[in-house]
Amino acid sequence: MSILSIDNVITVTLQSALKGLADVNTSVLALITQEVPISASYGDYGIYKSPGGVATDFGSNSDAYRIAQKVFGQTPNILSGGGYLVIIPRDASGVATAATILSASAVNLLALTASDYKIKAAIDGGVAAEIAIGELDLTSLEAAEVSLNSYALETAGLVFELSGSLASANVVLKSATTGAASAIVISACTTGTDIAVPFGMIGADVTGAAAGSLERIKDAILRVYETVPFFGIILDEQPTDAILTELAAMIQTMDKLIVVGSSDSADIQAIFTDLKDAGYTHTRCVYYSLSADDAVDFAAAYAGRGFCINFSGSNTAHTMHLKDITGFVADTGMTQTLLTKCMNAGVDSYPNIGGIGKCFISGVNMFFDQIYTRLAFKLRLQIAGFNYLATTNTKIPQTEEGMSGLKGALRKVCAAFVRNGVFAPGTWNSSTTYGDPEDHIANIAAVGFYIYGDSIADQSQADRELRIAPSIYIAAKDSGAIHSSDVLVNVEA
Fold it and tell me: I need a labelling partner for 374 at 20 to 30 A (CA). Which of 9, 58, 103, 195 fits?
């Protein structure tokens, strides 16, 4: 007698859970170093959870080891957030590069309506001369680039490159030559309309690099960008104004933060103020006057203390204002005048407050914790939304039920950021509200955030056919932080 399979009655299929993405680790700190590792087989980067490994790979007298000590010496530090230190040596075998100038910020090309544009440049060590460009063709970004690169400009040995859009263009000016002799110095025109003014290039003085010279900092970052994850960036040097401006422009387009230090008080009202005015909030500038090495170390220690938040924890959010930086005494060169300059420029410092050293932050270009926590929030929302869509074995229906699930995934992130102290219930003071204003205001007051989604029934047929979800809007109330207080005392006899 044959025995038939019970599949004729009951069928069981085992399905494995689909993999999602892990949250971005916003406590991973990268050190871009000029130093060469001891081992020739080091590779593009090394990962460290203590200074000891850095001493092994770079030597106990190295700058990398000294900086690692400052990072890990803080309490708490990047390990508290589940992070680690990535050290990325700059390559010294690169090809020759051209002298390159970046616009100080994105440029609205549509506002450039003159017909007599010029630029004054000294190229490759030559005499400065005014170069005619003329009127710009603003019918498209490509047309604008062509018109910028006039016959006179190309003949002189320069070329403009544009990216972005006509209303917000990133402008790059390059020399046609490469190597250490490649150089561009921009000065102000005395005739015509100076196009270097809206491009923020007046006074730029840059050179290229010879073959085999040290890789540029930004190129080192881009080289490993997709190889090893990191969020914060520190350096083992004080970069020149041109290099720092170039770095800040690039970092602003990334979900990353860089901390740079200076011991030169002139930088406060110069390059640091320029970065603040350009809106480069992802570049955090700190001042410590004792020496150049101390300023570099202070930036590293500040980052080690700053990037410590465990966003999965409870009440783990912090502000850097009035925090102690282990291993540093109060800046003996800090005066009230310098402190005021730092506050006006959004530069963080370490003055003597009441007899002890404390971080002092004005928030003029936003507070460090605001930029840090909001980037972390953005990244976690992206991951939560992706994982909700990517870990289903069937599909998320394009219905209100499906939208409810998607909003639920985002709601968990919002709740976590209330739990860790980034957001908190409060009064909504903005005139911008989503959905029913009363619901918006009531949710902010009750839980600290509000999520609203457009109706499935109201979306266009084109979006429906492309399987695009209706827009989702999130409002959240920053918990803020108390940094100072005024007290009035009325004593009656």
Answer: 103
Cβ atoms of residues 208 and 158 within 8 Å: no
Closest CA to 64 of 92, 26, 36, 94: 36
Does residue 485 lie within any of the structural domains? no
Order of strands, sheet of 232-235, starting from the edge strand that comes earlier in the sequence: 46-48, 85-89, 29-33, 232-235, 257-262, 283-287
Please state, in angstroms and as integers, the Cα–Cα distance from residue 220 to each residue in 37, 89, 224, 293, 349, following that order. 15, 8, 7, 21, 28
What is the CATH number for 229?
A: 3.40.1190
Q: Which domain holds residue 429?
A: 399-476
Looking at the fold, whether 166 and 240 belong to one and the same domain comes out as no
Question: Could you give the number of structural domains in the chain?
Answer: 3
CA distances from 428 to 366, 434, 482 (A): 20, 12, 18
Buried b (16+ CB within 10 A) or exposed e, 399-428: eeebbeebbebbbebbebbbbbbbbbeeeb
Question: What pLDDT, in 10s, does the model give residues 87-107?
Answer: 999 998 767 888 888 887 788
Please report whether residue 67 resides in a domain. yes
Tokens, residue 358: 């404390």
Mean pLDDT of the chain: 93
Angle at CA of residue 323, ends 318 and 326, nearest 5°: 120
Residue with tokens 């029934």: 457
